[in-house]
Design a protein that fits this description.
The protein is an all-alpha fold. It contains seven helices and no strands. The N and C termini lie far apart (76 Å).
Length: 145
């Protein structure tokens, strides 16, 4: 049976302290590389980059994207296939009950997501404005009545 003495505790503490100091002793380049790797996805997308899971960022001063552009870039994956129970674009029956709740409710669902479903806030489009999401919702409703 291992007997813990003050000497053993002191040695363990000193060892842990030394490991902690070693872990903090990084160069600026190493720190920058780590920070780049752990950035949230929405912060590491570059303008025009479509590999971040959302629509490409709007060019500076380019204005808001149309509803169809946002749909094609961010919504189509689920609303074309019905993935995770998403109502398919053009399926009037699937959209009827949702449309009956009103556009305010649909816009809210698009912007904030729907708890307990696959619909996440802004459909996962981290760089879409609320207005762009509402335009995409409007586009889907127009195509599905």
């Amino acid at each position: 049976m291992l007997r813990i003495t003050q000497g053993l505790l002191a040695a363990l503490f000193t060892g842990l302290l030394a490991l902690g100091a070693w872990a903090v002793d990084l160069t600026d380049a190493q720190r920058a590389a780590i920070e780049e790797r752990i950035k949230p996805v929405g912060e590491s997308c570059l303008e025009g980059d479509t590999s971040c899971g959302g629509a490409p960022a709007a060019a500076a001063g380019g204005g808001a994207r149309s509803g169809e552009e946002v749909y094609n870039a961010a919504c189509m994956a689920c609303h074309m296939t019905g993935a995770a129970g998403a109502p398919k674009l053009g399926d009037a029956a699937a959209w009827a009950e949702r449309i009956a709740r009103g556009m305010d409710a649909l816009h809210d669902s698009g912007i904030n997501g729907v708890p307990g479903t696959g619909m996440m806030a802004k459909g996962g489009c981290v760089n879409c404005s609320d207005q762009e999401v509402m335009a995409a919702v409007d586009y889907m409703v127009e195509q599905s009545q």
